[in-house]
Amino acid sequence: MRLRLTEEEAAFREEMHTFFNTEIPQDIRDDIRAGREIGKDHFVRSLRVMNAAGIAVPNWPLEWGGKDWTPLQKHIWHEELQLACVPPPLAFNAGMIGPVIAHFGSQEMKERFLPATANLDIWWAQGFSEPNAGSDLASLTTRAERDGDDWIVNGQKTWTTLGQHADWIFCLCRTDPEVKKQAGISMLLFPMDSPGVTLRPIKLLDGSYEVNEVFFDNVRVPGENLVGEVNQGWTQAKFLLGNERVGVAPVGATKRALATAKEHAIDLGVLDDPLLAARFAELENQLLALELTALRVVANSADGKPHPASSVLKLKGTELQQEVTELLVDLAGPLSLSSGSESVPEWAAHTVPTYLNFRKASIYGGSNEVQRSIIAGTILGL
């Protein structure tokens, strides 16, 4: 594999580096660099700066705001964004429902939703996970039944990330219970303030409210809000989840977190410890291997379709992300358990909440156990 960037690629990296470090408001990047909680405003402001510059949704088709970039350019864009502490374009919009509508939606649906989705005028929620489905998404029981031209939706979703900010939800519903479970699912779009929708927050280990339960009680959805054809939802879900797994290998963000950890180790005067130095070296080597794998995956993605090896990125990317958060906790030591004291460095006070929060990374986007099964079956042929 060629590791050295061409002059054009190096210039592109410099262009992205300059843009993200000069155009995105400083206060947003400072909050992310310090590990503070970021809210809806952070996402909306930064995304609209990117969208105005035409670089918010490079993976979309050209006619809907995409860029005719090479896979390597898209990778550089994503990495420089993370290194500059810029909030990534909201995954539910840019990486999930946007590409699904662009690929499966009618022309009318594309015109109605894609520009607003790219500019974050609509904040989307993902209505996939259900309380009794576990990792078997196809066993969902939320149902949608015909009533004239409309659909009537009843059921429950859970772990709906950032649903408290959402304007609309893309929801997988069972529309035919008489066929094989994967063949009887459809995707519907409807506003979160529709009559019959109730959202209830779930408190997480780190004390934050990031995920929610969502209940549907006879929610009426116009027939025109069906994505693609009836009972095509499983195909759309696989398309969406493949894209999601490419995006959950946060190479740039993990590199930044590891570099920050090294800075703290130097400040604390502990980097000379042989065991700690070896730990840094091991993580840096694994991260380099992941980055090279990510380049191979993006280089083999054709027609916007995710490569099966995206499961490798999801698995290893989240493992490394969690290992770096654990390293930061160890560096902070007893200070990591302190809170409310002005004498405790801000970075140290954030380490335990961050560590706890990222336990989720090996579950969302298809659990890491599911990814191992995919890798065994589709890549290794076991």
List the helices and strands and how they pair.
Layout (H helix, E strand, L loop, with lengths): L6 H16 L3 H8 L6 H13 L18 H13 L7 H14 L2 H12 L5 E4 L15 E5 L2 E8 L10 E7 L10 E7 L5 E7 L5 E13 L11 H15 L3 H18 L5 H26 L10 H23 L13 H12 L10 H12 L3
Parallel strand pairs: 1-4
Antiparallel strand pairs: 2-3, 3-7, 4-5, 6-7
Helix pairs in contact: 1-4, 4-8, 4-9, 5-6, 5-7, 7-10, 8-9, 8-10, 9-10, 10-11, 10-12
Give a verbal description of the structure.
The protein is of the alpha+beta class and 382 residues long. It has 12 helices and 7 strands. It has helices at residues 7-22, 26-33, 40-52, 71-83, 91-104, 107-118, 233-247, 251-268, 274-299, 310-332, 346-357, 368-379, and strands at 124-127, 143-147, 150-157, 168-174, 185-191, 197-203, 209-221. The strands form 2 sheets. A 4-stranded antiparallel sheet has the order 2-3-7-6, with no helix packed on it. Strands 1-4-5 form a 3-stranded mixed sheet.
Strand count, sense and closure of the main sheet?
Answer: 4 strands, antiparallel
Overall geometric form: globular
Radius of gyration using CA atoms only: 21 Å
Structural class: alpha+beta
Return residue spans where pLDDT drops below 50 for at least 5 consecutive residues.
Answer: none
* Percentage of residues in DSSP E strands: 5-15%
Gap from first CA to last CA: 27 Å
The overall average pLDDT, rounded, is 90
- Main β-sheet, spatial strand arrangement: 2-3-7-6
Number of H- or I-type helical stretches: 12
How many strands appear in the DSSP assignment? 7
Helical percentage:
40-55%
How would you spell out the order of helices and strands?
Answer: HHHHHHEEEEEEEHHHHHH
